[in-house]
Amino acid sequence: MEIVEVGDDSESATSSRDGGAGKDVYVSVGKDDLDVLRWALDHALGPGSCVYLIHVFPPIHYIPTPVGRLSRNQLSQEQLRPYIQEENARRQKLLQKYINLCSQAKVAVDTILIESDFTAKAILELIPVLNITSLVMGTKRLPSRRLRKGLGKGEFVKKNALDFCEIVIVCDGKKVVDMQQRSGLEPSSPASSSRRPEIERHPERNFFECVCFSGKFN
Question: Containing H/E element for 182?
Answer without folding.
Answer: none
